[in-house]
Structure formats: structure tokens, C-alpha cells
Design brief:
Helix content is about 10%, strand content about 30%. The protein is mainly beta and about 375 residues long.
Length: about 375
């Protein structure tokens, strides 16, 4: 059953403050703070560009509520559900609308947020997620504790909501609060209405470019080294040509041109084909990565990358082949150290054994060592 918060029209309102702001006007704003968990640079922002599958985390902020020294005892606000369909087509609306109003993690008042306007104070915070227009209320138990705004434009949070476009969404959407001081309003410690109030909206542009996707892991993992000997036919055939990249959201619209592949030469492998498997993207290169070098695959829009190396005999994965790799291989053969097959199977027969030791000794004695580097890399956030 939908909760009703009518106290703004009844008992809590004992009078109105017909105050004219001497400084800045009390203001509510709805602003984007992150997309797919990636904080918006220089955010919060009143405008954000996203594509299908993206999830925008938006916060409702309040500022300058004390033009005459008013203390804020209570606030109520509500999303204008009509604004969900303010674009050319489809909707941008809360994720999993009408979930579980008693436990809904999607739309909430975050009492632990230091930016929360009632942070650290005894309150009755309520969120109504059943109605199409989400509603939030917070009332101080002790009215005298109401905070005062310094009238300096500093923003304090009131509520959080996750928004996502429908599959058919198109155009520019303007997400708004219900601009009525009795529905989206503020009450002083004297139980007076704070007026006038201004309202600022959030603009969401639908853009086909997946700007907010980022790589979060890869297989082979970031920093992995293929130590198999390139002189053996099977090892050459098994050398990495397919890399699976996991993203923070559906990578279905990520294309080959969204990546760069670099190995320190002007003839790096190129992406031949990509395919999606859920949130995983399989990248097929046109040839195995180059021996004796690190190969870096970078997602250009997010600047996240993964770096994998191909250094025959480099069992310990430090980017060079030397006698320390013999010790690492012995540990792997004796079960002291667990390593992936590509790191210990030097002779390419699928199992650790004497053949790997002999092949590693040949590589070291032939002086066929991998280039010393600064070490394994990490996928950048």
C-alpha cells in the first residue's frame, strides 16, 4: 500500500513564513553523481549523456534554506513521474520500479552520508517507492536541532535514486521534482513553511556512444605472462589470440574501434572480431601477441586497459627470463606453487614435468630472455 505524507498540508504546518530571501533562494536540485558506478568528473552535474543499459545515480540536493536564519526541521520531496517520459520516445525512470518499499536499496535516504542534511540527528526518514513518483520525507525528532544553512550555495543531500532508460528511449529527458512547496517543500523548527523555493532539473541525453562502460577484469588477467616457448608448434598455436574483457555493464554496443592494441611496434595485432557474452566481451586478434613484449588493450572511452605479455620461459611473470624462473618452475612441478598452465607449460605438453625444465634451460642458455620491464600492469579504474 502506498504511504501518504499529508502532514505538509495538515498538522505539521501551523503557519507560513512569508519571507523574502535576503540572500540566495532556498533551492532543490536533482543532479547526477555517477553512471554505472563511475563518479561523474567535476560532479554533481545537472546534465548527463548516457546510452541504453546505463544506470544513472542521481541525488536530490537542498541548499540555502535559511534566508532569515530558519532551521530545517523537515523536508518532503517527490519525483514528477510525468517527467520520466519527457523525451522523444520511451522513458527514463527508477530502476526496478515498485520493488519492496520496506527494503528498496534503489531509492533511499542515506543516513550515513555526511552530506545528508540531517546527518547525525535523530529523525524519522521515510521513502515511498510504491508510487510512480518516488517520495522521501525526513522529520527531526527534536525540532530545536534543525540545521541552518550558511546561504553560501553549499549542497546537502536529501535522497538518492538510480535511473535507467527503457530500451526504446530516445531523445533528451528532463527529470524533475514536483514543483509544489506543499509536496516538495521544507518546514522550519517553528513548523512554518519555507518559501519561496526554486527547483532545478536534471537533463539526460540519450547518446548511442557507450561512454560509461569500463573494463573491470580480463582473461587472461591483467599482468599475465604467457611463458610457453614459441619454438614449439603447439605453443605457438596456443598463444593468446582471444582475450575476454569483463565490463561494469552490458558491452553490447562496444565496437572494435573503441579499442587500441599496442605492443611497442608499428605493427601491433589488430582486432579481427568481437562478440559479447553477457557482460563479457571476447576480443579476437588477427594474430598471436608478439613474443618478447607486453601487449596492452585499452578501452578508449574509459581509459581502462589490460596488459598481457608473451615471454618464453618467464615462469615467475616478472617480464624477464633468468635462473629465478627455474626455481619457480621447480616449485610448480613439486606442487609448492600453483601456476596457470600458460605460465609453467614451457614445452607445450599440457603438464608440468622434466620437459619443461629442459626447455627452460635451453631458453636461458640460448640467451633468449624476455625484455626486462617495469613489471606486470593492472587494469586501471
Amino acid at each position: 500500500m502506498s504511504m501518504h505524507f499529508n502532514f505538509f498540508r495538515t498538522g505539521l504546518i501551523l503557519g507560513l513564513t512569508a519571507a523574502v530571501a535576503l540572500g540566495q533562494t532556498p533551492t532543490y536540485s536533482i543532479e547526477a553523481v555517477a553512471v554505472n558506478g563511475i563518479p561523474i568528473p567535476n560532479g554533481p552535474a545537472s546534465k548527463v549523456s548516457i546510452t541504453h543499459g546505463d544506470v544513472v545515480t542521481a541525488k536530490v540536493f537542498i541548499r540555502n534554506w535559511s534566508p532569515n536564519g530558519e532551521k530545517l526541521r523537515a523536508y518532503q520531496l517527490k519525483l514528477d513521474d510525468v517527467s520520466y517520459a519527457s523525451g522523444e520516445q520511451g522513458v527514463v525512470q527508477p530502476v526496478d520500479l515498485q520493488m519492496h518499499p520496506d527494503k528498496d536499496p534503489n531509492a533511499f535516504i542515506d543516513e550515513s552520508d555526511p552530506q545528508w542534511v540531517h546527518f547525525g540527528l535523530g529523525t524519522i526518514p521515510i521513502t515511498d517507492t510504491v508510487s510512480l513518483g518516488y517520495r522521501w520525507v525526513s522529520v527531526l525528532l527534536e525540532s530545536i536541532d534543525g540545521p541552518i544553512s550558511a546561504q553560501d550555495g553549499k549542497k546537502y543531500s536529501c535522497a538518492t535514486v538510480n535511473l535507467t532508460p527503457s530500451l526504446n528511449a530516445k531523445g533528451t529527458f528532463t527529470l524533475a521534482l514536483v514543483e509544489d512547496p506543499y509536496i516538495t517543500g521544507m518546514i522550519t523548527s517553528e513548523n512554518d513553511q519555507i518559501m519561496p523555493i526554486e527547483y532545478e532539473r536534471l537533463t539526460v541525453d540519450l547518446d548511442p556512444t557507450p561512454k560509461w562502460r569500463r573494463m573491470i577484469s580480463s582473461h587472461p588477467p591483467d599482468g599475465a605472462v604467457d611463458a610457453r616457448s614459441a619454438s614449439r608448434k603447439r605453443a605457438e598455436e596456443d598463444s593468446w589470440t582471444t582475450i575476454r574483457l569483463t565490463f561494469n555493464a552490458d558491452p553490447g554496443k562496444v565496437a572494435a574501434e573503441d579499442f587500441t592494441v599496442q605492443d611497442g611496434t608499428s605493427s601491433s595485432p589488430q582486432i579481427k572480431k568481437i562478440s559479447t557474452e553477457g557482460e563479457t566481451l571476447a576480443v579476437l586478434l588477427d594474430r598471436p601477441i608478439r613474443a618478447g613484449a607486453w601487449t596492452t588493450i585499452t578501452h578508449k572511452h574509459s581509459s581502462t586497459s589490460t596488459r598481457i605479455g608473451r615471454f618464453p620461459g618467464d615462469v615467475d611473470g616478472n617480464g624477464t627470463t633468468d635462473t629465478n624462473d627455474l626455481l619457480a618452475l621447480l616449485d610448480a612441478i613439486n606442487g609448492v606453487r600453483k601456476l596457470p598452465e600458460y605460465q609453467f607449460d614451457i614445452d607445450g605438453n599440457g603438464a608440468p614435468g622434466p620437459g619443461d625444465l629442459l626447455r627452460l634451460l635451453d631458453i636461458i642458455s640460448e640467451g633468449r630472455v624476455g625484455s626486462r620491464t617495469s613489471g606486470a600492469g593492472r587494469t586501471q579504474p
